[in-house]
TrEMBL record:
rRNA processing as UniProt keyword: no
Name assigned to this protein: Cytoskeleton protein RodZ-like C-terminal domain-containing protein
Region listing for Disordered, in residue ranges: 510-538, 562-601, 698-762
UniProt biased composition (Low complexity): 562-572, 591-601
Superkingdom of this protein's organism: Bacteria
Length: 762
């Protein structure tokens, strides 16, 4: 019980500057939350020993006066009022606070002027400001601010870009003249203690109080807090730097997704010239108008703004404010007590075979005591411990501990090691370690300080053959082996073997008119379309050629006369474009053959989400259950396809400017600027179709290859339904020389080239 009492006294000492400044029992402020921090919650916090703060927000002076009077009727303890420095009637609001003897005024939302600070202080109130950086904190102190609040990005509502852990390290060691309160992501008392020990005077919490019993927030609002975890509290996303969005942290819902869609549509209208830049910015800013009230008061947690900090994951139940504050204090006291135990008591539980001594007080040394080793051994035997157990516990070899107990200095490596082992052993035995070390140095001075004599083994005499002779013999063997190889090995020039190009193995794989199958698989509606031609079958030699009437012609390029070769007669068994049409007539890599055409790449399943990479990008994708589907660097031209069953996906990109999304024929714009990092982007097929990620330029169709001879006149082949199947007049076909090996392109190069040709411009 005394340990807990001491811990509570330590806590009181740590936050005493904050308590004295606020005039409260505990240095815990209630964060000012619009529509939530009103008379009921503020008075409950103050009555529980904390310090409540009214959120003025957009209140008129008359409305603020009404709220202050109502709060004073519910509590006689001090409380404060949070004023927005951008309020058009700021001076009148300050006068209302002073007229009703409000003890503290928090100036938030911007840098207050020296005149406003002076107005507050001259009226008898204490002025508090927010410091998002060390330089601004020092400036506010010079202007007359009497206390600072440093709020990290983990907080709910309007936040800055820096976390509390970084702000605390940046500011707390350097500002000592005024109390500094920490805020952002705090939900436990032990976390508060850690900042108090760094120099903070207290803490401000908001999210945990918003879900209390005294909070007037709608039950739906509170239940949303109970269901949420820390990762659900995200900041609002800005799509275009031309239209800045103030970051606000809240729970992700349909409203936050709708905000992305609204931004995309508004930006598109501006780019099309439908609205001016000022009107577009105003439209984006007005999207959330009244959204916070709808969530807090009306319970519309789907479309309203559910502002919450990342500590929302620690809200497990709806409790009274007094119980919340009592729990925070209890956690803080327990954390301090455990820390004191770790600092001042040995880790007896580190080895289960050893029980702690009944009396853990340090035993002083007397001058008439025996040697150091005898003291150690006697104490160990009193405790009933074996030397092996102590050695295993302390991670020191047992022979060294035996040497210490036996005063066998010859077994110790040196004075540094001996003193270190002795000090550790003495601490474990609850002896006066410093006294034992001093006696050890005094009694054995000069004994263990001598340097250990180094003994070097004598070199052995040379035996066997000389080294030079062995090296010479080795060289002879190597030369003889080479001569034999040269004599019997064949030195004929190797045959010129060329690895066939991809184009020779895959018909149509690299034609300028055909999209590669790999790219087509991730480009809806862009499957490769082979050039139309007719299948060929060898006609009997005596069958005369019949020229078909010109209808539904299929163009066939006529090569120069020097390259014309007789072609077998072609029978038109059906209309042009039927299943009998040969798919190889348009092959640019050689003469037409009867080889069946490749099957086109299968279409992307309906509802699938496809991620296409326009540049090297690190990408991580998680499905709706949080499973990581991919986490690596993808090259330009690569793609990833997600099945609709795994949506919504959460995606993070190291280079958002090199990423586009597509689904069911809809392609988005790049997800950001080149080099921009985006994390936890929620992606669904519906969001892509709705334009939430912007609309990209439709992928252009590949142009058909032009005949090499512009003067060549195409001949038509027709199969009339009413006439018998005619025999097509033989058409000469030009065989193209095979591609040179030096110009071969790999499949990856083809993919990259296709992407470069079809990617929208930025």
């Amino acid at each position: 019980m005394s340990a807990m009492t001491d811990a509570r006294e330590t806590l009181n000492r740590l936050w005493k500057p904050g308590c004295d400044f606020l005039g409260s029992e505990v240095a815990i402020l209630g964060g000012a939350m619009s529509w939530v921090s009103e008379r009921n919650l503020v008075s409950a916090i103050s009555n529980a020993g904390g310090f409540g703060v009214i959120a003025c927000g957009a209140m008129t002076p008359e409305r603020l006066e009404e709220e202050i009077v109502a709060t004073q009727a519910l509590t006689k303890r001090p409380f404060g009022v949070n004023l927005i420095t951008m309020h058009p009637e700021l001076d009148r609001l300050v006068d209302v606070c002073l007229a009703h003897n409000v003890s503290h005024v928090v100036l938030a939302g911007g840098v207050p002027t020296s005149a406003t600070i002076k107005r507050v202080r001259d009226g008898g109130a204490r002025a508090i400001g927010f410091a998002p950086a060390l330089a601004l904190g020092k400036r506010l102190v010079k202007l007359g601010i009497e206390a600072l609040i440093i709020e990290g990005s983990e907080a709910g509502g309007h936040v800055g870009p820096v976390s509390l852990t970084v702000l605390a390290q940046e500011i707390l060691p350097h500002i000592k003249d005024v109390p500094v309160f920490v805020a952002g992501g705090l939900g436990r008392g032990d976390a508060i203690v850690s900042y108090l020990e760094q120099g903070a005077s207290g803490a401000q919490l908001g999210t945990i109080f918003a879900a209390s019993q005294e909070s007037i927030a709608h039950e739906n609002f509170k239940k949303a807090f109970l269901r949420a975890n820390a990762r659900d509290a995200v900041t609002s996303v800005q799509l275009d730097e031309q239209f800045p969005v103030i970051p606000v942290r809240g729970l992700a819902n349909a409203g936050s997704r709708g905000f992305l869609k609204h931004q995309a549509e508004t930006i598109q209208k501006f780019q099309n010239g439908a609205v001016s830049k000022e009107d577009a910015q105003l439209s984006i800013e007005h999207f959330w108008a009244g959204a916070l009230r709808r969530a807090v008061m009306d319970g519309d947690v789907d479309n309203g703004s559910v502002m919450a900090g990342q500590s929302v994951g620690m809200v497990k139940e709806i409790r009274p404010v007094s119980e919340i504050i009592a729990t925070l204090v209890e956690q803080a006291v327990e954390a301090i007590a455990k820390r004191e135990d770790r600092v001042h008591a040995p880790a007896w539980s580190g080895y289960s075979a050893m029980s702690p001594p009944s009396d853990i007080r340090t035993m002083p040394l007397r001058s008439d005591q025996p040697s150091v080793g005898t003291i150690l051994r006697t104490r160990r035997e009193e405790l009933g411990w074996q030397i092996e157990d102590v050695a295993q516990w302390l991670r020191i070899r047992s022979r060294l501990l035996v040497a210490l107990e036996a005063d066998d200095l010859s077994s110790l490596a040196g004075v540094a090691y001996a003193v270190g082992f002795l000090r550790t052993y003495a601490h474990a035995m609850q002896l006066d370690a410093d006294g034992l070390v001093a006696r050890f140095r005094q009694e054995y001075r000069g004994v263990v300080n001598r340097k250990t004599d180094l003994v070097f083994p004598q070199p052995e005499g040379e035996r066997g053959l000389p080294v030079g002779l062995l090296v010479g013999a080795g060289l002879v063997v190597v030369v003889a082996a080479y001569a034999g190889w040269y004599r019997f090995a064949s030195h004929e020039s190797p045959a010129d073997r060329r690895v066939p190009a991809v184009a020779e193995l895959m018909s149509g794989a690299a034609t300028p008119a055909t999209t590669s199958p790999q790219v087509a698989s991730v480009m809806p509606g862009r499957a490769p379309t082979p050039e139309p031609h007719v299948s060929q079958s060898v006609a009997p030699a005596m069958t005369p050629s019949v020229e078909a009437p010109p209808a539904k012609a299929l163009p066939l390029a006529v090569p120069p006369a020097s390259q014309v070769q007789p072609a077998p007669a072609v029978t038109a068994g059906a209309e042009a474009g039927s299943e009998d049409v040969d798919q190889n007539a348009g092959d640019q890599f050689g003469p037409a053959t009867n080889t069946p055409a490749e099957t086109p790449a299968p279409a992307v399943p309906v509802g699938s989400v496809v991620v296409r990479l326009l540049a090297p990008v690190w990408m991580q994708v998680k499905d709706k259950d949080g499973h990581v589907l991919v986490s690596r660097v993808l090259k330009a031209g690569e793609s990833w396809q997600g099945d609709a069953a795994g949506a919504p996906f959460r995606m993070s990109f190291g280079n958002a400017g090199g990423v586009v999304l597509s689904t069911d024929g809809t392609t988005s714009a790049p997800l950001g600027r080149q080099g921009e990092v985006r994390r936890n982007v929620e992606v669904t097929a519906e969001a892509i179709k709705s334009g939430a990620f912007g609309n990209g330029v439709a992928l252009p169709a590949q142009p058909a290859s032009e005949p090499s001879n512009p003067s060549a006149v195409p001949e038509a082949v027709d199969a009339s339904q009413d006439s018998p199947a005619p025999v097509v007049k033989p058409v000469p076909h030009r065989a193209k020389a095979p591609a040179k090996p030096s110009a071969e392109l790999s499949a990856d190069d083809l993919n990259a080239r296709q992407l470069d040709q079809s990617s929208p411009s930025h």
